[in-house]
Structures are given as structure tokens and as C-alpha cells.
């Protein structure tokens, strides 16, 4: 009987062990199953919370970008109508992207400074006369003249270095400075108005004000250049052109000296902004050389020129929105100044990616409709959307990296993002954007042939 008891005991122990293992296995499988079942709900909740948190941001930014797209479309249509002017004045296309970007950089920074001063109380919405207001306005005027001159010399230098046929340095300077004066006369009140209205209506300057001012720059620059070209052709081959060139050079030198010797606030703006705007102008001129190098291919379909300001402008707006949001996040502590993107930075990346997926096909449609309506030759809706969307989605990850690392490095060095980050990020984006656009134009037109 003893051996029977022992056998039964062993059998019982074995059954107990087996049942215990089965229970543990069942519990483990249940836990893992529950975790797997929770994954879609967790992902869904994260997406729901993300869109709930950023719905206002997406609404504001998309509205601003759409308004900007209309302004950029008008600029693009005007540019597509300049094909004869661009043939008469070779090399002028090198100047145009830099001129467009420079207006947005100078007056975008002005709008950002005015907004900051309104919020901290050093300015009032009535804009009563004050040293801060005066010096901000004077700085925009001085920087417009200085940078217009530098842009003209940079455009001529690039044409010489790359062997492009081009107009003289006198022609470049007269067109650039006159265009800067004409567009600045419109942009200055527009910037002040946008800054006041954004303050009064509680708009987020990161999402609305900066892109609206940049779009105003895009809209006013090309008509101003066209007007400057007409004046140049009227006075060309006479002493007036040379006299204007000399006057502009003297005004530029005297303006810079005045800026660094009067008022601490004015001096700070001029000293901080000038090197950044020099770099921005070089990047902008690089963007122009890329377009000029492919001018014959683009000229075969002038409708493509309608896409150029749209694509460049909206890309600049996207990277400036991201740059402004990252800068604000760094300053209020919601984003860490890490060399690796944290959750806060990734959230902003997602916003820009969503906007890019919507905006780039949309601007392809707008460019097609605009060129069709105004009789510019078009490559067709499908090709226009394909060019815009593909080039835009190729550009988007590069824009994310540009904005993120410029903000991180500038924040660590204590530099003012109003004067540095946004101008540099948009200017670096311009040549990259034009490169991708030209590559896709050549690929698509080549594939079409």
C-alpha cells in the first residue's frame, strides 16, 4: 500500500505542477492578449489627444498658409508673366528669390519685435510715438537699403562665378534698391497693421503673424521689381542710372553708420540682423542661380514659374512656423534644448508633416488653376500636383532638421530668434526647395517627353 500511496502522491504532485504551469501560462497569455488588445485603443487615444491638443494650431496655421498661398499665387502669376523681361535682362532671375526672401526676413523680424513689445507693454496698440517704435521702423528702412545693395552685388558675383550672361552691377543695384524701396513702402504699414491686429485678436504670432508678413513680402516684391525694371528701362543708357547707383551706395553706407551710432535698441537690431541677413541673401541668391541655371527648361512651360513663389513661399512659411513654435517651446520650457528631438519637438514635427501633406498638393492645384486662368502655358494638373507634392515631401524632413538644430544651437548660445532663427531657416530652405523643385520639373518634363 505504501508504494500505491507514493505513486498517487507523485501523480498528484505532477498534476499540481502541470496545473500550476497551465494557470501561469493562461494568466500570461491573458495579460499579453489584453496588452495587445489595448494597443489600438492606446494608439487611438494618443491620436485623439494629439488632434484635440493641436486642432486650434492646425486650424490657425492652415488658414494662414492658405491666405499666404493666395498671395504667393498672385506673385507666381506675375512672375510667369515676366518671361520677356527675364530674357531682356539676363541674370535678373538670380536676384528675385533673394529679394523675396529678404523682404520677409526684414519685415517678419520687425513684426516679431513689435509683437513682443506690445505684449511686454513697451508699445501700445495705438502706437504712440516712442523711441522703441521709431528705432524699429528706422531699422527696417536701413536694413532694406543695405541688404538691397548687398543682394545686387551678390547676384552679380554669382553670375560671374557661374558664367551666366547678366546685366551690369549698376542695373542690378538700381533694380534691387528701387524694388526694396517700393515694396518696403507697402510692407512697413502692412507689418504694423498685422502686428496690431494679431495682438488685439489674440492670434498666436508663431502660427499666424509670421507667415502673413512673409506672404505680404512675396506679394509686394515682384510688382515692385517690375516697377523698378520699367523705371530702369526708361532711364537706361543715361547719366541718371549711374547717379542713382552712386546715391544708393552713399545712402547705404551712411544708413549703416547712423544705425550703429544712434540708440542702443537700434544699434542692437542692426548689429544682430546684418550678419544674419548677409547669410540669408547669399542663400537666397543661391536659390536664384539654381532657377537661372534651369531657365531654358522652365521657360518652355511658363506656368512652372507660377509654382516657384508658391512652393518657395509655402516652404518658407512652414519652416518659419516650426522655427517660431520650437523657439517658444524652448523659452517656456516645454521643449528641452537637446540634440535629439524630445516629445515636445516631435509633436511640432507632426503638425508640420500634416500641414505639408495638405499644402503641397493644394499649391500644385492652385498653380495649375492660376496659370490656366491667366493663359500661361501649363504642364497639366496631374504633373503640376506631382511636381509640387513630390518635391514638397522630399523637402519636409530637411526643413524639420534645419528648424530644429538652428533653434537648439541658437538657444544654447543665447541668440535672439526674432533676428536669427527665422531668417536663417527660411533662407537655408530656399535653395534646397528650389533644387528639389527644379529636379522634379526636369524629371517630370523629361518623362513627359
Characteristics:
single chain; about 450 residues; mainly alpha
Structural overview:
- This protein starts with a helix and ends with a helix.
- The chain has 449 residues and is mainly α.
- The protein has one domain.
- It is 86% helix and 0% strand.
- The model has no long low-confidence stretch (mean pLDDT 79).
What's the layout of helices and strands?
Blueprint: H1 2-80, H2 83-88, H3 92-120, H4 131-162, H5 169-200, H6 209-235, H7 239-261, H8 264-293, H9 295-299, H10 303-332, H11 343-373, H12 381-412, H13 421-448
Helix pairs in contact: 1-6, 1-10, 1-11, 3-4, 3-5, 3-6, 3-8, 3-13, 4-5, 4-7, 4-8, 5-6, 5-7, 6-10, 7-8, 8-13, 10-11, 10-12, 10-13, 11-12, 12-13
How would you sum up this structure in a few lines?
The chain is mainly α and 449 residues long. It contains 13 helices and no strands. The longest helix has 79 residues, at 2-80.
Tell me the number of strands.
0
Count structural domains: 1
Radius of gyration: 28 Å
Q: Which whole number gives the mean pLDDT?
A: 79
- How would you sum up the major sheet? none
State the distance separating the first and last CA atoms.
98 Å
- The number of helices is 13
The structural class is mainly alpha
Oligomer: single chain
- H/E element string? HHHHHHHHHHHHH
The fraction of residues assigned to DSSP E strands is: under 5%
Level of helix content?
over 70%
Low-confidence stretches: none
Can you tell me the overall shape?
Answer: elongated
InterPro entries: SLC41_membr_dom, SLC41_membr_dom_sf, SLC41A1-3
Pfam families: MgtE
Main location: membrane
GO molecular function: monoatomic cation transmembrane transporter activity
Amino acid at each position: 500500500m505504501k508504494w500505491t500511496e507514493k505513486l498517487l502522491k507523485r501523480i498528484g504532485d505532477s498534476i499540481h505542477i502541470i496545473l500550476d504551469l497551465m494557470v501561469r501560462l493562461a494568466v500570461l497569455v491573458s495579460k499579453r492578449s489584453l496588452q495587445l488588445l489595448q494597443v489600438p485603443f492606446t494608439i487611438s487615444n494618443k491620436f485623439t489627444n494629439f488632434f484635440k491638443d493641436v486642432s486650434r494650431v492646425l486650424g490657425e496655421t492652415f488658414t494662414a498658409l492658405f491666405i499666404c498661398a493666395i498671395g504667393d499665387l498672385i506673385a507666381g502669376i506675375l512672375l510667369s508673366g515676366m518671361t520677356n523681361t527675364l530674357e531682356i535682362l539676363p541674370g535678373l532671375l538670380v536676384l528675385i528669390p533673394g529679394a523675396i526672401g529678404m523682404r520677409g526676413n526684414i519685415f517678419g523680424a520687425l513684426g516679431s519685435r513689435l509683437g513682443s513689445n506690445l505684449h511686454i507693454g513697451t508699445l501700445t496698440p495705438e502706437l504712440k510715438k516712442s523711441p522703441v517704435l521709431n528705432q524699429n521702423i528706422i531699422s527696417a528702412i536701413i536694413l532694406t537699403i543695405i541688404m538691397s545693395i548687398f543682394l545686387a552685388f551678390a547676384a552679380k558675383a554669382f553670375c560671374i562665378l557661374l558664367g551666366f550672361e547678366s546685366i551690369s552691377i549698376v542695373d542690378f543695384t538700381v533694380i534691387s534698391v528701387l524694388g526694396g524701396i517700393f515694396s518696403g513702402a507697402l510692407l512697413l504699414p502692412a507689418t504694423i497693421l498685422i502686428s496690431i491686429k494679431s495682438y488685439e485678436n489674440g492670434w498666436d504670432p508663431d502660427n499666424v503673424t509670421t507667415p502673413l508678413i512673409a506672404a505680404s513680402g512675396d506679394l509686394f516684391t515682384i510688382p515692385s521689381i517690375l516697377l523698378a525694371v520699367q523705371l530702369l528701362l526708361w532711364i537706361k543708357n543715361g547719366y541718371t542710372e549711374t547717379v542713382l547707383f552712386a546715391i544708393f551706395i552713399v545712402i547705404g553706407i551712411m544708413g549703416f553708420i547712423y544705425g550703429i551710432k544712434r540708440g542702443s535698441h537700434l544699434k542692437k537690431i542692426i548689429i544682430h540682423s546684418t550678419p544674419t541677413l548677409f547669410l540669408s541673401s547669399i542663400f537666397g541668391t543661391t536659390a536664384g542661380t539654381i532657377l537661372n541655371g534651369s531657365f531654358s527648361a522652365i521657360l518652355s512651360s511658363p506656368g512652372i514659374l507660377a509654382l516657384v513663389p508658391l512652393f518657395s513661399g509655402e516652404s518658407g512659411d512652414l519652416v518659419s512656423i516650426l522655427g517660431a513654435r520650437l523657439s517658444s517651446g524652448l523659452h517656456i520650457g516645454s521643449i528641452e534644448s537637446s540634440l535629439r528631438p524630445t516629445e515636445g519637438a516631435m509633436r511640432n514635427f507632426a503638425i508640420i508633416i500634416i500641414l505639408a501633406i495638405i499644402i503641397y498638393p493644394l499649391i500644385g492645384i492652385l498653380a495649375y488653376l492660376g496659370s490656366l486662368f491667366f493663359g500661361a502655358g501649363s504642364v497639366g494638373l496631374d504633373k503640376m500636383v506631382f511636381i509640387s507634392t513630390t518635391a514638397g515631401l522630399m523637402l519636409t524632413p530637411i526643413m524639420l532638421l534645419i528648424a530644429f538644430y538652428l533653434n537648439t544651437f541658437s538657444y544654447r548660445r543665447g541668440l535672439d530668434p526674432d533676428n536669427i532663427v527665422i531668417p536663417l531657416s527660411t533662407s537655408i530652405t530656399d535653395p534646397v526647395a528650389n533644387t528639389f523643385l527644379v529636379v522634379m520639373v526636369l524629371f517630370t518634363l523629361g518623362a513627359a517627353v
